[in-house]
TrEMBL record:
Superkingdom as given in the UniProt entry: Archaea
Organism phylogeny: Archaea, Thermoproteota, Thermoprotei, Desulfurococcales, Desulfurococcaceae
CDD domains for this protein: PHP_HisPPase
Domain (Polymerase/histidinol phosphatase N-terminal) ranges: 4-70
GO-annotated molecular function: 5'-3' DNA exonuclease activity; 5'-3' RNA exonuclease activity
Protein name per the record: Polymerase/histidinol phosphatase N-terminal domain-containing protein
Organism of derivation: Aeropyrum pernix
Amino acid sequence: MILVELHSHTTVSDGFQTPMEIVRIAAKAGLAAIAVTDHDTFRGSSLAKRAAKLLGGVVVIPAAEVRSEWGDVVVLCSNDVSDDFPRAIEELREWAVERGCVTIAAHPGYSRYHGIPLDAVRRAASLFDAIEVWNAYTPPHFNFMAIRLAEDLDHTPVSGSDAHVPSMVGVAPTLVDSDSESAEGVVEAIAKGRVRPTIGFPGLRAILENLGWSLYRIIE
């Protein structure tokens, strides 16, 4: 089993750390791989992947958090892809499958951050390879509802830190059963359900960093 961060952000969207910095942070945190899931673009993961080739220590998975017509979907890919994804949920799923990617319902039920409604995930579970049942940036109440949903559907559960600041990286990684520490190995393991979520809570430093970063973005 390897530890993989499936949900993180950089300065390419609304994160504090640069793509190069997040690679260093992930390696220091002991992660085998990280998906840089900047909002509506694969550019952050592309830049982080280049940084990883120079720095070593961690695998970067091509990824993005796509704002679909229903809400946020994390898309993880085996290889680099372009930002030509559709917003219609069924078309997004087809787009992902055609490119060897998997789709994850991000923080479902948490409408404040554009999570897909729980009843929508329930009705169309086949559109997702996994459900993010634990998001360290989401109030626990919503995570518990997501856990129950995945259990009811017998659907693959994953976790993610939704890291926007350094101390959040690796707070709630997913355990991935893969012999290959590669993007292909991680994506295949998720598609086949060979994963296990972890439950992690932000520490005091992460809470303060999140607060400071949020205030900065408000007054900027």
